[in-house]
Amino acid sequence: MNADLMDFRGLNLLKIRVNLLNPRLSVSQQLKYFRRRVKVSETKVALVTGASRGIGRGIVLELAQNGFDIIGVGRSFDPNNTEKGLFEVKLRVEELGRKFQPVQGDIFSLDDHEKILRESLDAFGKIDLLVNNAGVAPEKRLDILETTAESYDRVMGINARGPFFLTQKIANQMVAQVKKGVSESPKIIFITSISANTSSPNRAEYCISKAALSMIATLFADRLTEFGINVFELRPGIILTDMTSVVKEKYDKLIAEGLIPQKRWGTPEDIGKAVVALAKGYFDFSTGMCVEISGGMNIRHL
Ligand SMILES: NC(=O)c1ccc[n+]([C@@H]2O[C@H](COP(=O)([O-])OP(=O)(O)OC[C@H]3O[C@@H](n4cnc5c(N)ncnc54)[C@H](OP(=O)(O)O)[C@@H]3O)[C@@H](O)[C@H]2O)c1
Q1: Whether the Cβ atoms of residue 271 and residue 209 lie closer than 8 Å to each other
Q2: CA-CA distance, 72 to 68, in Å (whole number)?
Q3: Could you identify the atom of ligand 1 that is nearest to the CA of residue 137?
Q4: Which of 201, 269, 287, 288 has the highest CB neighbour number within 10 Å of its CB?
Q5: How many CB atoms lie within 10 A of CB 154?
Q6: CATH 3.40.50.720 domain locations along the chain
């Protein structure tokens, strides 16, 4: 096999000629040899947004336990703080024997998307999995009759517009990787919410952003099948994190009264485990699939 690679991003290669002399090597052996030559990690690399805490942290730790190296994106970035935030997560990942590259970036900002891609490729040379997890709730819950344009634009910008354009950028990178044989069947996962199809008129902009993100997942799934890139949606229910800490007492009571059939809060680990199942390829004939992780809130009963 002969392969010429021109200026492959992140590998700092102007031109590499790979000559595999042994035609008896299997395709995967050839890929392995090729990756070694171009210094691309053989370990799968996952880019997780909102990796500093909550659900994103849970996803990162489950992926690391399952052999992934991680690029973790967050807004706050303090290398001196190893108690909390991206650098705490870095320590935990390294304890698990895997690598973690912290990247500062705001998903709202398209300029930051370029930085995220560049720093990811500088660190690992490829991205095998993108998990679009970062997201925000409205700063203040307001009735739909009073929703402000500022809050609408902020929530839509971070929860829908940002992940759309970040995914577009990373998807193009993944397509290039597939074409060049650098990675096999990359994947993209969107963390939406049961709010994608559950009405909460006191945070309309959040529900709208998650419904939009759900369609974004479907659209990329549709477009990327031709490249063997599977795209999935995970729809968490009520998960105990900073985001829900402000309504903890309210939900404790509702859960005790039977709101969630499985009668408990969801945890970041619940979501992380589902990400691992998708990332490891156990659902490889199911692109475009949406999985709800809500302790049975999806059950309609009389
Ligand atoms: N908790 C739930 O019950 C629940 C339910 C359904 C869906 N979800 C969804 O799950 C995702 C994670 O939620 P969570 O509960 O883990 O929230 P969280 O505890 O508030 O954590 C949010 C994470 O997103 C990051 N983030 C926020 N805005 C960002 C931006 N503009 N750019 C980059 N990173 C940003 C934060 O980074 P910094 O630390 O740097 O701020 C943090 O890592 C969200 O998309 C949320 O909508 C949550």
Answers
A1: no
A2: 12
A3: 47
A4: 287
A5: 17
A6: 44-293
* 33 catalytically annotated: no
Q: Where are the alpha helices (DSSP H) in 106-203?
A: 110-124, 149-156, 162-180
Question: Pocket around ligand 1: residues whose beta carbon is below 6 Å from it?
Answer: 49-50, 52-56, 73-76, 106-108, 133-136, 158, 191, 193, 236, 238-239, 241-244
Angstrom distances, CA of residue 233 to CA of 55, 150, 189, 214, 295: 14, 27, 6, 7, 17
CATH of domain 44-293: 3.40.50.720
Closest-CA residue to 49 (of 164, 221, 144, 156):
164
Number of helical (H) and strand (E) elements in the chain, helices listed first: 10, 9
Summarised one tens digit per residue, pLDDT across range 169-192 is: 999 999 999 999 999 999 999 999
Predicted confidence (pLDDT) per residue in 56-110, tens digit: 999 999 999 999 999 999 999 999 999 999 999 999 999 999 999 999 999 999 9
Closest residue by Cα to residue 123 from 47, 32, 37: 47
